[in-house]
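Worked example (supplementary).
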Amino acid sequence: MAHGYVPAQTHAEVTRDVVATLGAPSRGYVMMLAGAVGLFLVGLFTFVMLLKEGLGLAGYSPPVMWSVYITTFVFWVGIGHAGTLISAILFLFRSQWRTAVYRATEAMTVFAVMTAGLFPIIHIGRQWIFYWLLPYPNQRYLWPNFKSPLLWDVFAISTYLTVSTTFLVVGLVPDIAAVRDQVSGWRKKLYSACSLGWTGSDNQWRHYTRGYLYLAALATPLVLSVHSVVSWDFAMSIIPGWHGTIFAPYFVAGAIYSGIGMVFTLLIPLRKILRVEHMIVDYHFDNLAKLTLFVGSILFYAYAMEYFVAWYSGNTFEQVTFWRRAFGPMWWAGWSMIICNAFVSQLLWFRKIRTNLTALFVISIFINIGMWFERYVIIVSSLSNDYEPFAWGQLNPTWADWGILAGSFGWFGMYFLLFARTFPIIAIQEIKETIPFPRKRGGH
Amino acid sequence: MDETQDKGMDRRRFLTVLGVSGAGTAALTGCSTDRVQKLIPYLVQSEDQVPGIPTWYASTCTECASGCGLHVKTREARAIKLEGNPAHPVNAGKLCARGQAGLQSLYNPNRVRGPQKRQADGGTTDVAWADAIAELAAKATAAGGKVAVISGAGRGTFSDLLATWTAALGGKVVRYQPFDHEPMREANRQVFGVDGLPAHDFASARFILSFGADFLETWLAPVENQRGFAASHGFSDGTMARHVALAPRMSLTGMNADEWFAIVPGSEAAIALAMAQVILAERSSAPSDATALRGMLAAYAPDQVAQQSGLTADQIRLLAREFVSAGPSLAVAGGIGSQHAGAAQVCAAVNILNYVAGNVGRTVRFGADLDSSDGYAALASLQQEMDAGQIAVLLVHDANPVYALPKSSGFAAAMAKVPYKVSTALVLDETAALCDLILPQSHALERWDDLRPRAGVHSLMQPVMEPVFDTLAPGEVLLRVAKAAGGPLAGLQAASWDEYLKTEWQGVARNRGAGNFATFWVDTLANGGLFDETAAPAAVRLAAGAAQVVGTAPAFVGEGEFLFAPSASPMLYDGRGADKPWLLENPDPVTKITWQSWVEIHPETAADLDIREGEILRLVSESGSIEAPAYLYPGVRRDVVSAPLGYGHTNFGAYATGRGANALDLLPAPNGAGFVSYVSTRVRLEKTRRYQKVAKTEGNTRQLGRGVAEAMALGAAQKGLTPEEAHHEEAGGAAHEINTPRELDAIAGFAAAQKAATLKGNYAGEHPQWGMTIDLAKCTGCSACVTACYAENNIPTVGESEVLRGREMSWMRIERYYEGGHEGEPLETRFVPMLCQHCANAPCEPVCPVYAAYHTPDGLNGQVYNRCVGTRYCSNNCPFKVRYFNWFAYNKKAFPEPLNLQLNPDVTVRARGVMEKCTFCVQRIRGAQNEAALEHRPLRDGDVVTACAQACPSSAIIFGDRMDPESRVARSAADPRGYHVFEETNVRPSVTYLAKVLNGAEA
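After joint prediction of all chains, the assembly is encoded as:
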């Protein structure tokens, strides 16, 4: 039935191999988890210090009122986009190659959004009253301002977190049931509870597949809308370098680009550590790389368009902002972004590179760096030289900026690694769907 | 209802003062930190204290010698703000940044908290006042006439008492102020035979020529000068004066000139004489006795002078013709930053120039007899006596000569030879640190006193609150010593200093024929003093010495390729400002540097030497060396380096000590001169290759054609052009509309729809719309408004490390932009006071997720601190960047006790994590509205005055209701020069700027 890749395994082997990933942890895994927890503790310490002393510990230099924290926020929201794209949109498009990787990317999405969700709290001046951003009935008749893009953000992120978590959990149910049937003792009890009484009956499958399809349909617009809303945090302002109509598609493309980059970064080592090299193969990476090339090219176009429009508009504020982005004090960040994103992605025109995992891993690191810098450049360089030249200023990040950044990787990594050992990181039932049923030779 | 209430609460009544009797002070209730432990409601309400209602007292400023009148605002018996006394002839209600920071001298945490005695080990121990006074009495009487006093106190009853007291002991008083005007007095003696300082009438001068006199910063009475300067040089009724500055370094005064010439240092006298020569040669109307100078002036023909001055002969001739044809004109000289060995000759030459142009008696008014001290010569001779061991007891009052004199003068060593030294320092300074007994004085706001800063001005001070610490008025100390000592001092028998002062004033009252002293006294106190200046200036003629004036340049000491020309800091003055955070954080108006000292070097020179901003440069002279970071300043000659005075204290409280470098260390000993030559030595410049970030508040120095600071030529302003039309005219074409009629219709329709939307809901109805106009033709960038804003609105000072991150909180900042200056074009400076523009269409408001930024019905852009969660989006979205964030709990660090007593109870002290910004002094608006409501009358134009507008010595700021077409603000905003910054963003600011007007040379 399938074109392209067909796993050379039987149904039983798939279950066996996937359940094996939940066995005793390897040394590599333990070390990575320890590293992630360590980074998380660094972030936690930094956050406690921020609470105690004030946001001033970070390197904020007015007029740069948003810097590393918002950069990292947008970075993680962006990472969160590839997962839903792969699991929902490609599901609707019936792309077979998504099956092996979608569970991992969906988990990545949920944890990335969980990470991103911390930043609006970390970055505000009075973190202890973050809930004032939520609309809740109160005696003071205070209501948040629905004109503010920041409030749209709150809704976009919380909706996205809810839907993507639901999507992940629903997708997990049959697989958890499969694991339940393979284990014993307390683990059996745990997975029994988590499998929500899944028996695999025809009736259950019928409802399940319908429901999954609807959820996929629900999640699909969010892929486009969430990062559009995030982009409006910037585009709705009047800051030169932010105030662009191109921002929503530009940010969505960037988000997917960064998300797939992160998928490479996570999966290439993970398939080794979990010994599932035979299930996630070149074929998957080749397809992911093609997608990367596509969105990377959109980014290339968007970058070019930003500069073109700045020039073509005749708007001196825009022109100065973009001139300084390329040749100002932050030229190094501006060029990092263009080289890592627009140029490095063009290497993926070559099939040899697309199927060379080492090369892909290296490229994915460039993508991660490039996309972090993209947000850093958009946020910091635009703010540091806007309308009022006398008020211009340059950002100098401090340990507190890097502490929170490191902590966010720790927080994300910690959850991702724990998930990878607790739940099937490869979708058992969907892989099985792609395997032809055993037939007698000379069939059909 | 008592009588007072029947008459209604006239605001003036609050200026009614206490102290009809000497017991008045006793009525002042507790504000001393030591004594008030609990908040207790009044059992018996004090008559003059209504909680929540300010009480105002008239007083006099002591932060420099000019003697401005003060109105001190007190709340619950503590002073919270200083403003100018409108009735006072010197400042007419205005006050500079230094004067306002006098409050931080009162509440300075580094003040000496009680009498102290030096121990054998060099430390100090507390003593009781009675013991301290007994000890001083014993030492003074035992000194056998070998008593000397150095006093910085101005002329007044205290100075008279001090003179009597010292004379009775057989000693002598040297009145000494570092920024004295000794060269000017010497020149006046020589040229006019008058030993005194004249008043200068900037207001009626049509051409102002400054030979290095920084009259907007430290020269004579800066507030008065600025008031006059704004009156004449500010564009009004289609005309303005022209101002040309001649100085090797462009000071704030130079920045406000229509033209600045970077003349060769030391050539001022020759230029002035050359101008006088031209005038005498070309005009027949010069005073008859001036013609006798023709012979002497012949040597200073413009062609001869041109070579050595940096000006061409034609420029000198042109200046001379302008100077005499503008009439009356005014030439001024004698600034600290140009005080070289030939400074007296410069002043003398300028005297001659003013005389031949007929300005003496018109804009230069002798007879005003401005207060000045005995000069450095007197101090130098005292130093010799001390060195020779002829002084046994030295009393230092209001002076810090150990700091203010170059180290090379050897003053500290001479002082060390005096066996018994006493200081009355407020803060333990370098001089007090050498003293054996410290008798801390009560601050001028805590004591009775008076000053006579000039003829006819008799200015009073009164205690506005209980002393913060265990201090005494210096006059009280003298009288108590007299009582304890008896003997020669037995003649000085007054019950107290208060009684003594009042007895003196009874004499004044008698001379004026005042019938009832009690009424006279209360009226005079409420008025701030007696002000009866005579209008007619004293007539002066040239004296014989006029013919001996020489215009030769002075010799400068030492080797080195750079001449060192220190600048007088408008903030730190002679160094006494260095212990006040308000002054340290208010950026230097020229360089915009805070909390640090610096070395100014021309950018081209710096490029030649591969010096970048922030490289620590070592300046080495024969007398010493200093190190400070480089600041590249296009307003300094290529062969001159400059550094500010006032920094580099070694012992002056926590704020000042160790901050920056003391430029005086480079100066050679002022041997034999009658004054300290600040510009006297060449220096060698050594690069250290070490770098330090400069704590400056400027971002970009150029406005990149963005129209932040607009200016137009005088001709364009006279034609009534708008800034835009003026640009078009300059570009050589008429203003043309780029939009089609249909587009214009659409724009107008959109504007109307927006306007309709602003009249809905809460915004409908009869609300005022508060607005402000700022006239850039008047603004000099002096930054008095900045300190006024800090004082009024409890703005925390954040310190050097935070300014380095651009986190200063100044709601009002003075932006300084350069224009021109490339390839020989003249360098032009423009100042723009930038504050929240209270936009009608404010971009900060919609982006706040919690409505902390919102619009009030009366057009204010409000900020609800309680609601703010600190997303800072509002600041990002503000094109003017006038929102400030509390990155740390600045409120906890900025006001160490007792500085917290300065806080304005009407304004919230902002906590960590919230955004804050200019409120248009909403507390003043609501106060005035309440007052009007109580009096059942509508609010009148002028009832609300913001703190910045109140302080502005130039009266450049007008505040009021824009909706009222008759209001001053509406009328001034309708001026064709009016424009909004970043109009293209359609934020519709409530602040209208009036473009600066440039009075260029007539070709």
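Two points are worth noting when inspecting this output. The first strand of chain B starts at residue 55 and ends at 60. Residues 741-757 of chain B form the longest helix (17 residues).
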